[in-house]
């Protein structure tokens, strides 16, 4: 089997570390792994498949000879190094939002639109974590009938804000138990025993940037340019795995049984839907694995062509690192 020279840009962050772990789990055929980070992290030594790898400072010339670069850095870093990565002849599979809506850049969830990988010009974008989880959950239903609209509420774990999110939650819980105060640094307000109904800044008509991603990215991934999505994103005091409530309107009625059968047979998802047996998707059950759990499938009582469901998925893995590596697997199949 051919092996590949792979780089991770942003290797010291939470998603970059997860990428390294998942590359090993999935036995991705690697001849060389290069880990790139800021000058502050350069020189650190990490282990990969029994070998020590020294973290390198990200520089334009560092990407020469690589086949694939997995991006786990912020927009400004992705934009800074994208030209050098493409010039070096590598394919940049980027997890930032920098190129997601660029018309020449495929935006890919392998269970939904794997064929779009072939359209790349050196860059392929990984969608927003909530978008990945949602479209993976509903794709089997979209195959039964086009989705005209969705009303979505996301319940996003603190780790979605980076490694400092769970630390802040834990610190607040401990401080409150002692009767002490704690000044939030990661979130705008106390997240312990609270929910915060804002993720991102205002972008359009009172909707935040995080909320608009689901419509803009969902349309592109599912090839449904007219689909409308009204989304509310909420930060909740859960460490890992995002939960999402989805109300969909289709071109025709879809029965609950029809929906369950389609989801049960779909790739990347697991049907967990038995209310009487208290079985439904929950963050604790979905963390540290790659399936999106789907349940609470019901008829929408406000629209005869509507269905409602609840899904959960690990936003660090399937919502970010795993999805990027699945894209890389599609690349080497080509």
Word description of this protein:
The chain is an alpha/beta fold and 334 residues long. The protein has two domains: 138 residues, NAD(P)-binding Rossmann-like Domain (Rossmann fold, 3-Layer(aba) Sandwich), CATH 3.40.50; 185 residues, Dihydrodipicolinate Reductase, domain 2 (2-Layer Sandwich). Helices cover 29% and strands 26% of the residues. It has eight helices and 16 strands. The protein has a six-stranded parallel beta sheet, with helices on both faces. A six-stranded mixed beta sheet has the order 12-9-13-16-15-14. The protein has a two-stranded antiparallel sheet with strand order 3-4. A hairpin with a 2-residue loop joins strand 3 and strand 4. Helix 1 crosses helix 8, helix 3 packs parallel to helix 5 and helix 3 crosses helix 8. It starts with a strand and ends with a helix. The model has no long low-confidence stretch (mean pLDDT 96).
């Amino acid at each position: 089997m051919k092996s590949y020279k792979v780089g991770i840009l942003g290797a010291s962050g939470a998603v970059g570390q997860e990428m390294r772990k998942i590359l090993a789990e999935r036995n991705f055929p690697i001849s060389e792994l290069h880990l790139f980070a800021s000058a502050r992290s350069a020189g650190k030594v990490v282990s990969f498949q029994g070998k020590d790898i020294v973290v390198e400072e990200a520089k334009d010339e560092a990407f020469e000879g690589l086949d694939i670069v997995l991006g786990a850095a912020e927009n400004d870093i992705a934009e800074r190094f994208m030209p050098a990565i493409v010039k070096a002849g590598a394919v940049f599979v980027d997890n930032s939002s920098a190129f997601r809506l660029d018309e020449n850049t495929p935006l890919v969830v392998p269970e939904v639109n794997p064929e779009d990988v072939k359209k790349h010009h050196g860059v392929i974008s990984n969608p927003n974590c909530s978008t990945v989880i949602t479209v993976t959950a509903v794709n089997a239903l979209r195959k039964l009938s086009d989705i005209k609209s969705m009303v979505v509420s996301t319940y996003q774990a603190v780790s979605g804000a980076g490694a400092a999110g769970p630390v802040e939650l834990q610190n607040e819980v401990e401080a409150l138990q002692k009767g002490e105060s704690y000044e939030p640094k990661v979130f705008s307000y106390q997240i312990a025993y609270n929910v915060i109904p804002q993720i991102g800044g205002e972008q359009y008509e009172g909707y935040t940037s995080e909320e608009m991603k689901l419509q803009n990215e969902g349309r592109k991934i599912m090839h449904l340019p007219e689909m409308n999505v009204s989304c509310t994103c909420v930060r909740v005091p859960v460490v890992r795995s995002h939960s999402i409530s989805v109300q969909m309107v289709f071109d025709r009625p879809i029965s609950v049984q029809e929906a369950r059968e389609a989801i049960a047979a779909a790739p990347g998802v697991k049907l967990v839907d038995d209310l009487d047996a208290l079985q439904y998707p929950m963050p604790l059950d979905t963390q540290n694995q790659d399936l999106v759990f789907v349940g609470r499938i019901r008829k929408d009582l406000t629209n005869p062509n509507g269905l409602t469901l609840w899904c959960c998925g690990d936003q660090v893995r399937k919502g970010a690192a795993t999805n990027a590596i699945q894209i890389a697997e599609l690349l080497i199949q080509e």
